[in-house]
Amino acid sequence: MSDVQHTDRRPGPRFSRTGRLIVVAVLAVLVVLAVVLVPRLLRERANEETLTVPEGRRAAQIYAAADKALHLPGGSTAKAAKKAHLPLPAEAKGNPEGYLFPATYPIRSDTTPASLLSYMVKTGNQRLAEDHITSYRTVVIASIVQAEADRPADMGKVARVINNRLARHMPLQMDSTINYALGRSTLRTSHADTRTESPYNTYRYEGLPPTPIDNPGADALKAAGAPPAGDWLYFVTVKPGDTRFTADYQEHLKNVREFNDRQKNGGGA
């Protein structure tokens, strides 16, 4: 055995001059791309437009807002809605009312009315699935709840009133459905209004209207899907934050008189 120690002198990996030049060139290209593209991406992100759909908006209102956001002539989105193949339940018969979920949606250069509406409906279907809501009937009820409830805390009770009246074959007598039929929003409903010839007139016709009357948000959908127990048959919002529910018709009439008196006095507290 030799006492001499041998040192491994095998050369390590080395870059040739050509290889080093290639690496430098690639790095230079990456730096140039970063300088050019990053500011552009940041500008595009900053300038990215969005469309916010508030809770309770009707389809017609959403169509008009979409036209503005997409910089299209009025009526463009409404026309697209009639032709678009949206993932709606059969009962909807192609009408997306109730399924254009309230949220904020991005508007990009390639966004079209059809793609925007499809995004809204898919978002709505996802939320419905999360809340285990599969019934078109529930969405119709949720739309009425959205329009009638003064605040989220009252939504469950409003949904229960609707269910109780339907179970008793009582007309719903909801002002919100007449407003939908007449294309308006008001707190005042006249006797002439209640004689309106429309399937959305729930004073004249028993049962639910044929479609949702707006696009309800998460709170209204949850309330309609699982309303609390109660025997309420009537309600009226006497003043903001003061909605009174009762099963007694005479008590309801008293509350209605108080509401009417406040309206005559300018709606003051």
TrEMBL record:
Main location: membrane
Subcellular location as annotated: Cell membrane
Reactions accelerated catalytically: a peptidoglycan chain = a peptidoglycan chain with N-acetyl-1,6-anhydromuramyl-[peptide] at the reducing end + a peptidoglycan chain with N-acetylglucosamine at the non-reducing end
Family recorded in the similarity comment: Belongs to the transglycosylase MltG family.
Site (Important for catalytic activity): residue numbering on this chain: E148
EC number: 4.2.2.29
Its membrane topology: Single-pass membrane protein
Keywords associated with the record: Cell membrane, Cell wall biogenesis/degradation, Lyase, Membrane, Transmembrane, Transmembrane helix
Native organism: Streptomyces siderophoricus
Encoding gene, per UniProt annotation: mltG
Gene3D superfamilies given in the database record: Classic Zinc Finger
Protein name as annotated: Endolytic murein transglycosylase
Cited function: Functions as a peptidoglycan terminase that cleaves nascent peptidoglycan strands endolytically to terminate their elongation.
TM stretches of this protein: 21-42
KW Plastid (keyword) present: no
